[in-house]
Amino acid sequence: MNYRHKPRLMALDPVPTAFLGGERPNHAGEILARVDQLDRMARSIKFAGGVLRKARKVSIVEDDRFFRESMIRLLRSLGYSVQGFPSAAAFLDSPSLAKTIVLITDICMPAMNGLDLYRTLISSGRPIPTILMTSYPDDAVEARALSDGVVCYLRKPVDEQHLARCLRLAIESGETTEENS
């Protein structure tokens, strides 16, 4: 192969100094320590709707353990503090109920379904912006849920971008509710 121009190699700074607090680390151990420190900071403080919030959670109620765990991983990768629950009763009995800013719940679950969980929260005076998910979409259930005030109705498998939009809407609607209280 004959190249007219030799490719230029650019020197890249492998670790941006601004990311590491403005100081250039001396060795890999210092880099890892700083990354761990930043990771801990990111987990304790979340950015939501333009306001820094501490200890506010997205709660996922899903009886399918594997789907619940994959949703938890997805939401954490998007920067949210997340806790999962295997049933509506487990969520209602948990201390996380008071810290939940958005509830994501499956519709079809044993004992109490997701729509009943949402209605229970409303009737008990704890309105939490809610996103419903289902593997068995039903237009009548979707229309009823949305008219009752559910933020989004998602079909499984959940599209990551659609979920991210729904989370932003839910957080904004929760902030609006808090401002009007």
Protein model, in words:
It is a single chain. The protein has helices at residues 28-44, 65-77, 88-92, 114-123, 139-148, 160-180; strands spanning 45-48, 51-54, 57-61, 82-85, 100-106, 130-134, 152-155. The chain is built from six helices and seven strands; from the N terminus they run H-E-E-E-H-E-H-E-H-E-H-E-H. It is an alpha/beta fold. 42% of the residues lie in helices and 18% in strands. The protein folds into two domains: 1-46, no CATH class; 55-180, Response regulator (Rossmann fold, 3-Layer(aba) Sandwich), CATH 3.40.50. The protein starts with 27 loop residues before the first helix and ends with a helix. Strands 4-3-5-6-7 form a five-stranded parallel beta sheet, sandwiched between helices. It has a two-stranded antiparallel ribbon with strand order 1-2. Residues 1-21 and 43-54 have low confidence and may be disordered. It is globular.
Tell me the count of domains.
Answer: 2
Report Rg.
21 Å
Content of β-strand:
15-25%
Structural shape: globular
Please estimate the helix content. 40-55%
Q: What is the averaged pLDDT score?
A: 79
Distance between the amino and carboxyl termini: 71 Å
| Quaternary structure classification | single chain
How many beta strands in the DSSP annotation?
7
**What is the CATH domain class of the largest domain?**
Alpha Beta
How would you characterize the largest beta sheet? 5 strands, parallel
User: Which consecutive residue ranges, at least 5 long each, have pLDDT under 50?
Assistant: 1-21, 43-54
The largest beta-sheet arranges its strands as: 4-3-5-6-7
Q: By helix and strand content, what is the structural category?
A: alpha/beta
